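Our collaborator T.R. sent over the components below with a one-line note: 'Predict the complex.' Nothing else. No constraints on interfaces, no templates requested, no preferences about which chain binds where. So this is a plain run: every listed entity goes in together, and whatever single assembly comes back becomes the starting point for the next discussion.
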Amino acid sequence: MDEARPLILIVNDDGYEAKGLEAMVSIAKPLGEVVVVVPDRTRSGMGHAITMGEPLRLTNYKNEDGIAYYKTNGTPVDCIKLGEKVVLRDRKIDLVLSGINHGSNSSVSLIYSGTMAAAIEAAFDNIPSVGLSLLDYSPNADFSAAVHYGRQIVEKVLKKGLPPHICLNVNFPKVPVEEIKGIRITRQCHATWHEDLQERTDPYGRKYYWLTGWLERLEEDENTCEGALQRNYVSVQPVQFDLTAHQYISTLKYLEL
Amino acid sequence: MDEARPLILIVNDDGYEAKGLEAMVSIAKPLGEVVVVVPDRTRSGMGHAITMGEPLRLTNYKNEDGIAYYKTNGTPVDCIKLGEKVVLRDRKIDLVLSGINHGSNSSVSLIYSGTMAAAIEAAFDNIPSVGLSLLDYSPNADFSAAVHYGRQIVEKVLKKGLPPHICLNVNFPKVPVEEIKGIRITRQCHATWHEDLQERTDPYGRKYYWLTGWLERLEEDENTCEGALQRNYVSVQPVQFDLTAHQYISTLKYLEL
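Returned assembly:
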């Protein structure tokens, strides 16, 4: 490996045809050797799902500008595992980039996010990783502001590293670059998702349901991801994967288990 | 609703035919009104995945001993959403029970777990919830010790409640009931999953991969989930869903973003 050329693995959850993937490649290309491993279709809302019951496929579908592109029937987290073990065969990866996602991964959306699960999976293996998401679900979203600020963040992470087993959840507001006020380090906003399961009837008389919903913010603090985004700041949340509610380890004594 | 009869929703990730589901029903049946909403097949390792790209189906496949059983093509987390919104139509749920899972959900396995994702989904909505898992992947696992200790834990939670937005990740060692030494409140063990992607060739000459792996404990502390389980204690981990690495919010200044 050329020591001056960091090895960068790009993954996403929107699949190999997503415009956000091109945007991410444009960030990474000048920074090192880039390899892309992404799902062969949209895999939004996959959380930390992995493929256990069926075999994984992997296809080298394109080689362009020195970048090898692979797609798989697996999930975003599977893309990390396949990237590390099969495509790069345990070579040292210097940086994992996930996205750029079409749509927000702030607040509790982070928990449902395949984009961020892939970044967290890389953090398990202590690879510096960054998930980038734009608050615009449109397939033709304008990624120019995200690329501008994303490049800045990614360059800093590549140069200065991240704390062990910590990754970044970066969200960009849906505004032109000149309206972005700057970058804020944030914490996860307390919010809740209100489900709406739309009931319909198929042509054979059987009911089915479409899962939709909306996010209710339960706080307006400007130091949260949602608070920063509302004020047109880029939100950078440091993310860890210890789900222990440490503050309740001693208080759970009241249960008298 | 009969005020003396708590409403209990049971979900799992092993599907409607799992022996662990029967075990969970045997815990819940004496405690209140029970409704079951589970996947129509095994959905292990689904993490917090939800079904966005295709419609959800829901079938009332059995009614027995006053318990209504539903199955769905959705994920474990979808089971919570369908249970709350469609089956129970916003009735107040007093307790969600997830499992009993065939296999461990301790340490980082918690992050991949559909069982625990469903419990966390209930915690989003501030419903007391408990995920139960037995360290035995066998379809014919012996759940008698898990039922014995699980009933004890579930009764206490139903009587005394849980802190807001906190759920419990309960894991049972794979030993007979008389060898279990007791119950410990634990924190998530620091461990890492080592992937092994087994490469094979199908009859048409195309490669495919089976995802397997093993967990390496990176600490042996008896106060962790893994430490307790190794010593034949039942592990009860309080779980929260704020993934912010709070300790790094100030230190990330070194990135100079």
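Summary for T.R.: The first strand of chain B starts at residue 7 and ends at 11.
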